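Sequence in, structure out.
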Amino acid sequence: MESWLVVFVAVTSLAVILQTAILLGIFLQYRRAQEHMSRIAEDLQARLIPVLSRMQLFLDDTQPRISTIVTDAAEIVHIARGQAQRVDRIFTEAADRLRLQLIHVDQILTGTLEAVEETGSKVRRTIAGPVQEATALIRGIQAGLDFFRARRRPAEATASDHPDEGLFI
């Protein structure tokens, strides 16, 4: 059993030494990677600092202009809104006035047409009625005259009834 114990201790020692070697390799690899990352970070920082400083100067220079532009845009929007409301109010008033004028014109035309129609019916009653009566009277007189003329010429009427009789031999 002791021999087995020596074997287990030797295997365990060997495993510990192997683990130490692996951990040492990982540590050395980590250190190299950290140095490489530090160099990349320093290089990136050396390149970005001038760009960031220029960007800061640019922003410091343009910030008042941007503020002015935003203020002007807000004022333009405010003025445009006021003008749009004013134009809307003017168009609404004009439409209301036009509607009232159209109603007034419609009333005037309706009244005029009713007056013309009433006048036409009065003219028909006052003129057409007596004209028809006068026409009927004149026709009656003509019929009477035609009747009396026809009685006076009975002999003439028989000869003139057959105009072709004188042509036969």
